[in-house]
């Protein structure tokens, strides 16, 4: 199809041009086209993070469209910037793809990147990147952000007496992944395209949370200005990430499962939620979008207690010990 | 070998710990361990770039050690920061690797990253990153830098009458790649390990330039403070990159091949040099490390002239149209 060429039949310049046409206008001092981007950091600090989506362990092309992948690769990085109490300002996108990738795939990915930024972090734009050939489709996104004159909110500041709170959904993305594995594979385990017709509203929501997540990016800055003592992204399951926050702060987090909605098991151990976990002094009103799920107490043997007990369920997701290619 | 476990048999935390032990001490306001790094940008601007090395198109494990790969993945990104007239301050490293990768490979890579920073850009440290499983070993490095109060030096500022100058080697890295393809493949084209015993001193130097490049990173800041009107990294061959600078500036670059050393053909079209190409007002003395190779003239039909003529040789390297997996 000459209408939709393979990237291997195009020059790097042509591919770049097609991508740049899809992205919003640069807001940087120096945007795409030079050796590097130059971004304003008015308060003398920049927040920076990188996260990679890899074909196989992180996504399947039967389940995720190019648009979904662009969206998700932006969203998960925007969430990490938010988790410092910062506002995302720019993405750099390193795209490595097989040379039989269609140009429409690349432009779909660019559309997803742009729309995720516009929707979740208005003002944030793709300001640079890199194109490479690879046997494995890989999207590494670097996100940069600014703090607005405030200090970053770390994982280590939670104090006994603080309220534990979250913004964003817990559990849906993990349920969505389980749904994909349970319902959208052939008999031999191969992923097959999603037919949403047979899904009820809750299942569709779970699938959306997995494939096109909407982390509460703006709640990061609200947490910082609302006095958060600690803040982090919940990406590997609430219990595991709460343990990390508790360990960094030298406290114990006591979580009340009745505050976790109708499916507390998924909320506790789901993974890929990209919710924000925060602690606030009990004297402060919770910022918009946050809800209380527990309290910070003096450090005990356990870093996290659920309803006063050790959590016995699955703790969360480790990409090295948990991923099994044979699963499909 | 339990002495050298596969990363697939370790948890993410164990791999991270082994990497962090190899890297220099963080110099960031917030270094590795939180959701994102926070870096100081004293003059209110940050320079940011990303470049990816992919197993296959960008390197072969028969030819490059883990240390070489760490070194090169840092070096090529440090060069892009230098090419803005900036000083590199931090790297973020997104590492995607097969789960049968040995831990010693990961630590070797970390050693190479650290030593390249220490040698080429003292003060620059790996301040964050990401680990993922992938069928294809992929190293995406984001480099960040600061401008020291000066404006960035773009590709677009060259003016007729300026001197064209370069810092760093031109041609050796391309010759080194040709040497690998010519001498270190088996009969069926498979790369075989390099035996340096049969190489003369010049060939060893070429190989080093290809596998462990030493771009003149500190010359970037010297160019900026020395009045450079335009500056860029030469990564795809001098003629191709000079064309880009000429087009961005709306001028023609007239290059004198007698200034290009003993192998002008390689210097003009080599690729992966990571030299710095700059233009300076003729009234200024060239900063340390730069040598004149020509002059900027009013724009003509050709963007680049070599000894007054159109360059007829190979122009440079395009990762999409030039890469052929079947080559070996």
UniProtKB/TrEMBL annotation, chains A, B:
The keyword Metal-binding applies. Substrate binds at residues 58, 272, 317. It is an enzyme of class 2 (transferase). Mg(2+) 2 binds at residues 51, 80. Keywords: ATP-binding, Kinase, Magnesium, Metal-binding, Nucleotide-binding, Thiamine biosynthesis, Transferase. Mg(2+) 5 binds at residue 236. Mg(2+) 1 binds at residues 51, 130. GO terms for molecular function: thiamine-phosphate kinase activity. Pathway: Cofactor biosynthesis; thiamine diphosphate biosynthesis; thiamine diphosphate from thiamine phosphate: step 1/1. Pfam families: AIRS. PANTHER family: THIAMINE-MONOPHOSPHATE KINASE. This is Thiamine-monophosphate kinase. It comes from Microbacterium koreense.
